[in-house]
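Researcher: Let's do a round of design. I'm pasting the structure tokens now; please hold your answer until I've finished.
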């Protein structure tokens, strides 16, 4: 669905004129569009370095801190890699594209490149979210088989498969228009299946988590088992927050496409599209903040929080 929204934005925004209208009426119509571009450029220019820095620190935290090297955190670090690339590629391309437009320069190549990068990272993000959800599903629903299924080797293969799939879609995006359209449709179907899988998995996980909580209340479980259930539930809540944040970031895109399609007002798309794209890309800045909010060890590493000194007791 995310990829479908971005594809629809591509189709609409590709109708932008290559140069500004010479009439006064045309120039007046362009003012809201240009203002929206300037605001979007400023927001992305400010957010871009923080997106790269915070996600890079998350990756370093998982790599350097043994306590953070859980399987769920490793998958989140892989998602952070996609967010780093959003800050390194998608946001700079967007800024350059809109600056070129404001300067009345050719923007077709930048337009196509930015759309291609957004589609690729949208698909990659949802596939990583599917891995995060799948890991939680196995950990909570199939606890006995977890260590045999979620191995380091299987994790590496799954992440490599995601990136291979993303690179193939990106390469196909450089081919003929017919092939590109087929690739967009295939990517949209892939993301839709990911969303369905994630939604169904969270329904199962919610019911299973509730069952575990009732079990803790009714039965006298060993302390180790209680701690494990609590830890798994906390990791599940973190993944739910991440998935919700990504989904909500694409919601304005879907609503805008729907409104424009129904009421046939493409001028609204011209003004709103930069903000919608910006909102999607800002999700890459929000994700590391959620990681830090949910995990104290991560927060201490990313923000370099000093340890509180212990004052001696006065006797």
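Researcher: That's everything. Go ahead.
Model: Designed sequence:
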């Amino acid at each position: 669905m995310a990829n479908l929204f971005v594809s629809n934005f591509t189709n609409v925004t590709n109708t932008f004129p290559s140069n500004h209208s010479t009439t006064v009426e045309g120039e007046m119509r362009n003012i809201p569009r240009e203002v929206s571009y300037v605001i979007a450029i400023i927001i992305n220019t400010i957010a871009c370095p923080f997106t790269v820095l915070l996600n890079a620190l998350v990756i370093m935290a998982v790599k350097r801190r043994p306590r953070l090297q859980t399987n769920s955190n490793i998958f989140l670090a892989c998602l952070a890699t996609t967010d780093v690339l959003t800050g390194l590629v998608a946001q700079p391309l967007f800024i350059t594209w809109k600056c070129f437009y404001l300067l009345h320069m050719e923007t077709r190549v930048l337009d196509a490149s930015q759309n291609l990068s957004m589609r690729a990272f949208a698909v990659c993000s949802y596939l990583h979210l599917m891995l995060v959800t799948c890991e939680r599903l196995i950990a909570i629903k199939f606890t006995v088989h977890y260590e045999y299924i979620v191995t380091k080797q299987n994790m590496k293969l799954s992440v490599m498969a995601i990136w291979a799939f993303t690179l193939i879609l990106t390469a196909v995006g450089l081919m003929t228009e017919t092939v590109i359209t087929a690739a967009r449709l295939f990517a949209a179907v892939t993301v839709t299946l990911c969303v369905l899988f994630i939604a169904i998995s969270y329904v199962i996980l919610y019911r299973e988590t509730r069952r575990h909580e009732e079990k803790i209340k009714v039965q006298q479980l060993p302390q180790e088992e209680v701690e494990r259930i609590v830890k798994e539930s906390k990791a599940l809540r973190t993944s739910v927050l991440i998935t919700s944040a990504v989904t909500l970031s694409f919601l304005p895109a879907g609503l805008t496409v729907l409104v424009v399609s129904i009421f046939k007002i493409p001028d609204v798309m011209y003004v709103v599209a930069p903000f919608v794209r910006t909102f999607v890309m800002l999700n890459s800045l929000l994700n590391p903040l959620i990681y830090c909010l949910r995990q104290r060890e991560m927060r201490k590493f990313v923000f370099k929080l000093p340890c509180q000194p212990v004052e001696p007791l006065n006797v």
